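Data card: per-record layout.
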Amino acid sequence: MSHHRPIRPEDRHQFDAIIDARSPAEFAEDHIPGAINCPVLGDEERAIVGTIYVQQSAFEARRVGGAMVAANLARHLREQFADKPQGWRPLVYCWRGGMRSGSMVQWLRLVGWDAQQLAGGYKAFRRHVMTTTESLVPQLQLRVLLGATGSAKTRVLQQLATLGAQVLDLEHCARHKGSLLGALPGVPQPSQKNFETQIATALEAMDLSRPIYVEGESARIGRLTVPVPLVQRLRDGACIEIEATPEERLSYLLRDYAYLGDDPDALAQRLGALAELHGRQTVQRWQAWALAGELPALFAELMHLHYDPHYGRSQARNFARWETRQRVNAQDLSPNGIVSVARAVLALG
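The structure for this 349-residue chain is written out next.
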């Protein structure tokens, strides 16, 4: 059996399992990708122990907490770890690599497994996410996909991935389509920390000598903020514009956002946010269309009055290489058409 040695975040791939010993709430906010949550203290237990620590003493907190930890570890040994073979090698972490992961590692080693503790815990992993992003982003050879609303940029990106290109899909990481109406029904956005974890994890797997395709996002996707170094790199990337006719874009949007018709009230409420920009009267007309299920009329006007007027100006302002962009003509945004667009984008090199 190997002795204890400091395990760093970058060593995590050498283990059979990664175990997050923190409470479910801490795990839900963010965790190491692929980790399983085996709490040594539940959310309520952690609160109870914390209160005892503050109001009584560290000893009393350890005495009460120790019993809880022992009961939880017993449960994990009976349930989640029951089928693990003798040669199983788990990596365990908690918030800072302290008592919670330490006690679990001790028990797993007593059983005979070669368990190791992540030095510095989740906090060390969080630092790893930040430094990975800061060091890799300046090296990325980005190809930034641009195009007016409805030019199927996200679908083209997904198709590029299918064709074997390297893709960074920020909207997928953010669980949001990036536009005013981009919230996905019934899908909450992740925490800011988890969004950053997903990005860093994707970047770690990239071959930096090959191009990476990404959508030209704004600095915010829904309520999440794209990491600053990545925004700066996006702004400076080589631009590829997908050009489609307004008719083709409208029919694509009606397919892509069809689900907005399922909840007319929510749609009308979200359109209310545009009143300051477009005036009460216009927005009331849009809301009436939303409530009546008149999506074709609504989307046509949103394109014409809200999205398109500022498109060229904002691209020129946000993307340093907009003037020297390459263009791909997208005559057809059906699934087959999108395959052709993706092939044309790849052919640009």
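Known properties of this structure: Residues 136 and 203 are 7 Å apart (CA to CA). Residues 58-78 form the longest helix (21 residues).

See the next section for split statistics.
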